[in-house]
Amino acid sequence: MALVIGIDTGGTFTDAVVYETGRETVVATAKALTTRGDLAVGVGEALGRVLAAAGGAAAARAVGMVSVSTTLATNALVEGQGDPVAVLLAGFDPGMIARAGFATALPGAPVLAIAGGHDHAGEERAPLDLAAAEAFLTAHADRVAAFAVASLYSVRNPAHELALAGMVQRLTGRPATLSGELSADLDAPRRALTAALNARLIGRITGLILAIRRAMADLGIEAPLMIVKGDGTLASADAILHRPIETILSGPAASVVGARRQAGLADFVMSDIGGTTTDIAVLEGGRPRLDRAGAEVGGFRTLVRAVEMRTYGLGGDSEVDCPDGGGLVIGPRRVIPISLLAARHPACLDRLATTLGAGEAGGQPWRWVVRPFGTAERSTGAAGPTGSAAVLPEREAALLARIGDEPCPIATIAPDPRARRVLDRLVAGGHLQAAGFTPSDAAHITGLQALWSREAALTAARLILATRRMGASDEATAGAFANDVLAALARASARAILETVARRPAGAADEWFDAAADGRRQWRGLDFRMAPAVPIVAVGGPAPLIYGEVGRRLGAEIRFVEHGEVANALGAAVGVVRGRAVVEVSLRTGGGWRIHHAGAPVDVDAADRVIATARDIATAEATRLAGTLGAAASDVTIAIERVDLPGGLGDAGLVSATLTAEATGAAAGLGAAPGTSSGAAPAAPIATVSDKT
C-alpha cells in the first residue's frame, strides 16, 4: 500500500488528505486551523488527525510522499504582505524602472540601477559597476530580508546577474533572487518585478516548509516533501525555498486537479472559494489554459507560468465594511472572523457585550488585532512569523510590545491616525492579524455554520448596525444584516464568474452583468438569462454556503463534489514533477549561430549542428531541472519554433529558433506517479494542468 499525503495551508484552515495510489482513492481527510504565528502547530494538528484516521503509525510508515499546495504566496501578494527587500538592477534606464512598477508593488523598497547589462546577442553593453553595487548592498544588508537582482538581457547572458548574486552572498548573507532564473522572457522590467516579488516571499515559504518538516518528523514520516507550483506540477521543497513565487496560484492549481478528478467532467468552470480569495478557472476538453502572459495576482502581472486563473479578494473571511455612503463592501482584506476570535478568547465576547450594553459603539469596536495564532511571546527584534530577520522600526516595535497574548480592540490600541498607520504596517508585515466581521460570522448568525461563537457574531453585527445608524439594533435586524452580507458575497461571486468566463476586466462597468448577478431576469424590458454554458463546480469550505444562491441568481448548474472542501489537498496528492527549459538560437554577427541558455552563450558554425546542439542543451537543462525539482526520472519532450529564410535551405537558412524542453516524471521516492503503474503515463487530471506549452 503506497500512500501520499496532500496538504493545503489556507488562510483559515489547513487541510490534509491521505490518498492511496494503488486504488486511487481517498483514505482519510482532516482539517485544522491555520496558525500563522507558528505554522507547525496547524500543520501538525492536520497531519496528526489525518494519519490517525488513516491508521496511525502504520499509515505513517507507508507514506511515500508529502505534497503541499498553498495559498500562502497568493494571499501575501493580494494582501500586500511580505518581507522587506532591496532591488539591484544592471543596465536599466529610468523608463524601464518605472515600467517595472516597483513603487506600487513594493512601496518604500530601495531600488538602485547601476551600469552593466548585455545586448540581445549576449555581448556586454557596459562593465558592471561593482563599486556602486557593493555600497548599495552594504548600506541595506541589515535593513532587508532579501535582495532581487536583474540585469538587462540576462536571459541571453547571465554573467552580470551571477556576479551580483555572488556579491550579495559574500557581503550580506541574504538570499538573492535572479530574474533570469525565474523566466526566459526578454521583458526585463517584468522579469525584475517577478524577481522582487519572489524575494519578498522567501521568508514566508521558508516558515511554511520548516513547519511541515517539523510536523513530519514529530509524526515519524520519512518521505520527500513536495510543493505544488502554479501550473499544477510539483517541485521539491528545497527548490521552492529559492523560487517561492512559482507557488502563486498553487492552491487554485491543485484545486483544478482535485475538482477535475472528482467531477469527472471535461468542460466546466471551477470556482474555489476559501477564507481569503475566490479563484476561478475555465476547463475546456479537460484542460485548463495556462496564462501565457504570466500569472496576475493582486494587480501584479508576473512572468510565472500558471493556470489561467482569476483571483478575487472574496472569501469566507473577507472583511465586511459598511461605507458611510451606504451599501456593503466585501473584501479584499482577510481578517479573523470575530466569532472565531471570541471562541479562542472568550474575554472578547465580554468586551463586545459590555460595549453594546453601554451604547458605546464609536470607533468600530468590532475590529480587533491579535498576535498570529500560534505565536509565542517574541522580543521586538526577533524574526516575525514570516521568518524575516529584519529588526522592526522603533514605532512598530513599541506598539507591538504593548500587545500581549490577548486580542486588543483597534480603537484602544491605536486611537489616532498615526498609530493606525503603524498598526497597519504591523498587520501587513504579518506580526499581527486583524479581526472583524466576515461572511463566516454572518453564516453563524443565520445558522449555516456552527463552528465558533454565534453570540460574538451577533453582538458584532448589532454594534455595526448601531454605529452605522442602519436602524434598530436587535437580533432580528442583525439576522437581516447577516442575510444581506451573504447575499452581497453571492452577488460578487456571481459577477466574478461572469467576468472570468467572458474574459472581461474585473469590475468593468456592465449593466448586463450587474442584472444577472442581482438575479434579475429582465433588463430594460427584455427577458434574458446570462450564465456559463457549462456547469460550475464549486469547491472550498464556504462553497455550500454561497454557491446555491449563485446558481439561483445566474440560472446556472452548480455541482458540489465529494471531498470538495479539501480539493486543494487532494490535488496536491496526485501531481507530477516537470522541469522546463527554453533555449534560443539566433544569428551571430559575422556568421554562424549563437545558442542562448541558462549558462554562457554557445557559438556554432556548422549549420548541420546548430539545432542538434540546441536540442542537446535543452534536453540536458530540462532533465537537470526536473532532477533539481525532485523527479526520480523523467521523459523529455521538445517543441521547436523556428524562423527560416525562404527557399528551402534547411538549417543553413535558419534565422532563429526557440526550443522548449519539458522533462516530466514522478517524485523521487514514490516510484510512479499517483494513479499509475510504474512507467505509465500520469493520470489525465494531472496532465491536463501542466501539459500545455
UniProtKB/TrEMBL annotation:
Residues 191-333 form the Hydantoinase A/oxoprolinase domain. GO terms for cellular component: cytosol. Signal peptide: none annotated. GO terms for biological process: glutathione metabolic process. Residues 5-170 form the Hydantoinase/oxoprolinase N-terminal domain. Pfam families: Hydant_A_N, Hydantoinase_A. It comes from the Bacteria. Residues 670-693 are annotated as: Disordered. One of its GO terms (molecular function) is 5-oxoprolinase (ATP-hydrolyzing) activity. This is Hydantoinase. It comes from Prosthecodimorpha hirschii. The lineage of its organism: Bacteria, Pseudomonadati, Pseudomonadota, Alphaproteobacteria, Hyphomicrobiales.
